[in-house]
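question for whoever is on the cluster today: can someone run the full assembly for these? two chains, 656 residues total. i dont have access anymore since they changed the login thing
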Amino acid sequence: MADALIEIDNLRHSIGGRDILSVPALHLAKGQHGLLLGPSGSGKTTLLNLLAGLLPVMAGSFKLLGQDMRQLGPAGLDRLRAHHIGIVFQQLHLIEAVSIADNLRLAQTLAGHAVDEAVIKELLSRVGLGDRAKARPSDLSQGERQRVAVARALVNRPALLLADEPTSALDDENCAAALDLLLQQADLSGATLLIATHDQRLTARVPVALRLTKPEGMAA
Amino acid sequence: MNMLTLSLAYLRQRALTSLLNLLLLALGVATISFLLMLDRRIEDRLARDVAGFDMVVGAKGSPLQLVMSALLHIDTPTGNVPLSALDTLRANRLVREVVPVALGDNYQGYRIVGTEPAYIDHYGGKLAQGQLFAQPMEAVLGATAAATAGLKIGDSFAGSHGLTAGGEVHSFAPYKVVGILAPTGSVLDRLVLTPVASVWAVHEHHHHHHHDGDDHDEDADGDHDHDHDHAMAGADHDEDHDHDHDAKEEAGHEPHREVTALLVRYATPLAAARLPREINTGTDMQAASPATEMLRLRSLLGIGVDTMKLFGGVLVLAAALGTFIALANSLQERRYDLAIMRTLGATRSRILGQILTEALLVGGAGALLGFGLAHLGMVLMGRFSAQARDLGLAVPSVGLVDLWPLALALGTALLAALLPAIRAYRGDVARMLAQR
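^ ran it for u. tokens below:
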């Protein structure tokens, strides 16, 4: 695949000798969106952590942007994550001590980039928070917090945007709004969006890239 | 957004905890700094003021009291000795130098010392203005005494009876300022120096006035206890005895004049073995060795100072423990934030730096605040306590040795941060995030 973003074959992950994840194959091209669909306990979050370089690859083949993830050490994984991956967590995990603009600034500096106020301003405007840049995360509604989390994940212009259960606790209306936000912002940033979810409502709008089952009968 | 601004943001987020934590550390540092500085000042001052004199001869009594009154000027004298002892000692071939000291009065709490120019030379005193005293009732002021009293060359002032401020004012016998000394960092700075004859003159007048029943300048409140004050001046003789003196002195019987103490330098080490014994057994006087008495004083003070140091150490330890707990708790609460920072691309060393920066901020601010408090305490103590001023505490100075509590506080903060920092550094980000 000429513009392959994710190339996974026969990936396995185990804890204490027990397999908790097996992925025969997952291939995703740049700009292509997909779902990692499966029930709780099927290894979605583990796969997401592997994709983010937060867990080491134990067995199988995994290339991200053509780089063999097994060859990268901790520092290499940190660099890769900083420059090419954005993550929106289910819990959002905003830094509460600083303003929402500072959350974005922090994401830039931690990734080793210079703070780009223009990018921060543009992103906050895109998610409808242009006038709340100085607000603390605790001053925002849950929906607004999610928008900050998306903006922060995109501030370093990642090639891959990972989202963990972004709609699981939302009603239909808010679920649609959250998905709109992710798809729209990923498209605007030219990022590939991969959503780990058990929410079947998303399948109507995003193709399933990988269907995970519980360890007893894991299959692609 | 750099490490410093983020650390400050976290400290601001829990302002009260940060402040209390900082105060705890500051109090520990202040206590131990204060004690160390006090200890050092006392040691320095004692060493400087007693240096050079091998023996102090004075009236019988406590040898420590004699040394403290005659050399350090921080205690009442044991009494007086006949002036004739000065000539006797000067004639002794074992003696290189004898300097008389006559005490009795003060000006604004600064002791008026009747002595000879050799006393000033001994402490390396140099005139900043004017000249040395040549006649009775001429006075040369130590730098601190002159500055505090606001006296300048040509001014007149009257001494007060006794060695502490508040005694009966001898307005009938004013002194004239003829010289002001440059600061020496020794006891000289806080003295008013005059010929021995001035002290005799003032007290001769003093007794005449009392005897004649003149309305001299008694204490303003009128309740001044003259006998008590006289004892404070170190004259252990009674009024009648004094009057006898006066009568004989008026008739020209110089040998009956007295001085408070004689400061002696030996001509040979042999003198140390013979002279004190001869004086102690063969005369009504006592000989005290400044070096021995200072050792005794140090061992007496040492217990108190050591106890206080131990107390300060415990306080620092408690502060360190408090800092450790507070920092460890705060970092434990923030482990998710630290994990998030890792997911945002922060390297492990950046996380380590972040935690250590925060610890150094708390430790550094606590240490500086504590150090400042210790100095403030020292200055205030010097300002409000005459004894402390006597020790030269009012003027802050920083020595290298004063800096180690700062290092201790910073070390404590770093140590407190080390465990959470290592945990954050080595921690499994994926697992940490999953625990939320």
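summary bc i know u wont read the tokens: The interface with chain B takes residues 45-46, 49, 52, 54-55, 74-75, 78-79, 81-83, 87, 89, 91, 93, 95-98, 102, 105-107, 109-112, 115, 152, 156 of chain A (CB under 8 Å). Residues 172-189 of chain A form the longest helix (18 residues).
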